[in-house]
């Protein structure tokens, strides 16, 4: 299932390119902190560019076919080269540009488990040249002059190598794929992710935020603490709805047929439907203790 998911993500640029040209746009949400989004099709997860006084860092880098255009865009946005790249997790729609950026002189940082997984299959980083050069365990902090970026590991959430980036002075948080805002999340159980860990990580992010915090989701629009709470509430209630049917002794196919997540139909999207979310919840509830 994991390989199928990553294949779909890696093929997305070619599929969308038939109908539209994918470009990128950057929005300065706080001084020196830019949210970078793909326009015109699926261009990977939401990214960020951090322009400090002396150095420039970036969070995630889309997919291999888009790496050249992305590098050109963010270099123009920053006004100088990208010094550091922070990968939030292992999936190729967030690490795919690593090799291209590394070839231009960018140093890639990631959690230990991301490097381990990319060593087994470096294609998700655009090739062997995209392997993280610096890895961390619990976290690492970047001091980019006027911008402090705290990279914090969140264990067994979306994967086993997730990190969020918290900017305490700017009151901004980049969640990586620990948040799919207003859509069902992809929780990669085959890469060490767990539903329980995912919810716990979201609650930790919520606790870091206040009413004015700007939250960059891995996928979905820019949001805030209230928006994150709505996503947490959806997932917690979804888990409870599926558990109630498991407790009645129903099989996974019978639960899918009962459609317990019908009230959350607005969270459906092309990659994660209510059926797939239900099956993920069933599997996690059946294996997680």
Please give a structural write-up.
The protein has helices spanning 2-17, 67-78, 92-95, 98-103, 112-120, 195-208, 225-247, 252-258, 274-287, and strands at 23-30, 33-39, 47-51, 56-59, 84-86, 107-111, 134-136, 139-144, 147-154, 162-167, 172-174, 214-216. It contains nine helices and twelve strands. Strands 1-2-3-4-5-6-7 form a seven-stranded mixed sheet. The protein is of the alpha/beta class. The protein has a single domain (2-225), classed as Metallo-beta-lactamase, Chain A, CATH 3.60.15. α6 (195-208) runs antiparallel to α7 and α7 (225-247) crosses α9. β11 (172-174), α6 (195-208) and β12 form a beta-alpha-beta unit.
Which labels suit this protein?
single chain; 289 residues; alpha/beta; Metallo-beta-lactamase, Chain A; five-stranded mixed β-sheet; 12 strands; globular
